[in-house]
Amino acid sequence: MTAVALAFDLGGTDLRAAIVSRAGEVRQSLTVPTRARDGVDAVLDQMASLAEKLTAQADDEIAGVGLGAPGPLDPVAGIMIAPPTLAGWHDIPVVERLSARLGLPVFLDNDANVAALGEWHYGAGRGFETVLFVTVSTGIGGGVVSHGRIFHGSRGLAVEIGHMTLSGSGPTCLCGNVGCFEALASGTALGHRGAEAALRPGGEKIAAAQSDIGRPGARAVVEAARVGDPVALALIAQEAEWLGIGLTNLLHIFSPDIVVIGGGLSNAFDLLIGGIRSVVATRAMSAYRDVVIVRAELGTNAGLVGAAGLVLPAQGVVTRGGDQT
User: Fold this and answer.
1) pTM
2) What is the C-alpha to C-alpha distance for residues 29 and 7, in angstroms, rounded to an integer?
3) Which of 143, 148, 5 is nearest to 67 (CA)?
């Protein structure tokens, strides 16, 4: 019997779960909206329910559980410290609590870290020594894999890029500060700008897209932009500018070989990349301007594949502590 992993990708919008093989194959998967505002027990109940459904279909041995979750968190202690996108999650020993529910060992890491690991080994980062993964969705997160090792920093808190300050003013972030990368350039931020534009003259196509989708959000802006709506295209250009400014800072800090963009807003990568590259070409020092920027290959599976790698590391992958398997 082959060992597989039960993987979770816990986001502020969606909770994904899957059975994943050592080769990175997603065999079965389920996605539900995260009960992000309902507290810890509600989300743990969701995870237990998904686990029950998936393991009932699995023929192989479940070796353990890999959990990619929003930071800040401590992967060694197994504690989620205070993720801004999940209400009530303050210093929660999620590894202990989830393991008790599922009866399996649980391995925790930042969601962007595990997605970076998945892309480095199986996706767009294959063959590169240092990969910077940036996820742009409900929030903004980042992970760096260098020579097969996730860069954790002290207590596993490194690369919380969504909360670096890009501006001295602007919308208030969920972390309480203003001018954060996440508050300015996340899918949520784009969705807020789109909702405001939909109420003004000229925003009719965004409003129509919202009606079709059923709610305001970044997706409505993207859909309107794809049919050439000038208001939506202006919002996309603004989004690309903020992303380009943030990425320029990250290029200077981490000097990666490649930048991989994932998350829900990566579905608009083709609309954004021209503006992003223009900003990088203008703002980055010359030595950093030729770094490759690509869309994630694993899509929404990046976090699941990477989380599974915490349980069943592929040969040659170092996940933490420097021990190579």
Assistant:
1) 0.84
2) 9
3) 5
Give tens-digit pLDDT for 106-123. Answer: 999 999 999 999 999 899
Q: Give yes or no for a contact between 190 and 235, defined as CB atoms under 8 angstroms apart.
A: yes
Same domain, 101 and 166: no
At residue 314, does pLDDT exceed 70? Answer: no
Give the DSSP letter string of 249-283: HHHHHH--SEEEEESGGGGGHHHHHHHHHHHHHHH
Task: Give the pLDDT confidence score for residue 71 in this predicted structure.
Answer: 84
At 303, the amino acid letter reads G
The residue among 216 and 220 whose pLDDT is bigger is 220
H-helix or E-strand spanning residue 195:
helix 187-198
Confidence category of residue 321, pLDDT binned at 50, 70, 90: very low
| Cα angle 136, 154, 283; round to 5 | 45
Tens of pLDDT along 200-212? 999 999 999 998 8
* Overall number of domains in the chain: 2
CATH of residue 28: 3.30.420.40
Range of the domain at 12: 3-116+300-311
63 Cβ partners below 8 Å, 6+ apart?
3, 4, 5, 311, 312
Nearest partner of 271 among 321, 299, 234, 297, judged by Cα: 234
3-state secondary structure of 73: strand
Q: Which of 37, 25, 62, 32 is nearest to 47 (CA)?
A: 32
The Cα–Cα gap between 188 and 190 comes to: 5
User: Does residue 121 lie in a domain region?
Assistant: no
